[in-house]
Amino acid sequence: MKKYINLTCALIVFISTTSFQNGDILCDSKTLKEKAKSALGPYKYDSSELTRIIYKKTETVKEIEIPLFIGEKYRFIFNLEALPKNIEIQIYNKDKDSKNRKLLFSSKDGGIDRKELQWEVSKVRQVYINYIIPPTADGSYSGCAVFMIGYK
């Protein structure tokens, strides 16, 4: 009996480890960040963030606050190639709880779903990036998005 319990535990550990490794291969942060960095062009690298996106049965919104210096010009790069399903990116001047917030950018403006997006801004103190994650009928699964910022 003890032999079967040990075998079952070993099998569970093996399956868990392999499933996490497959997710990490999909979200290879180093490669995704290198691709995003090459799109910065004449802008100097400032920072980047890898965001895990989890798809659920209902639409979800993930918001990130980005503080900026007034007087600098910024380029935002989004690398979305490690996502199994497209998401919408919206950038606002205020957080989701504020009244009179203004939409500054939406990935749906161009009407084309792309795996790499760029946006430039200046004269703003901070922005709020909203990842609009669509619902899925297939259960929950995940991917990742890379956001990178450069300045002039």
What's the SSE pattern? HHEEEEEEEE
CATH-derived architecture: Sandwich
In terms of per-residue confidence, which ranges show pLDDT below 50 for 5 or more consecutive residues? Answer: 6-11, 13-25
| Average pLDDT number | 82
Helix/sheet category: alpha+beta
Beginning-to-end CA distance, first to last residue: 67 Å
How many H/I helices?
2
The global form is globular
* Percent strand: 35-45%
Sum up the structure in keywords.
152 residues, alpha+beta, 4-stranded antiparallel β-sheet, 8 strands
Describe the structure.
Mean pLDDT is 82; it is low at 6-11 and 13-25. This protein has helices at residues 2-26, 29-38, and strands at residues 44-55, 60-67, 73-79, 88-92, 103-106, 116-122, 126-133, 141-151. The protein has two helices and eight strands. It is an alpha+beta fold. It has a four-stranded antiparallel beta sheet, with helices on one face. Strands 2-7-4-5 form a four-stranded antiparallel beta sheet, with no helix packed on it. It has a single domain, classed as Sandwich (Jelly Rolls).
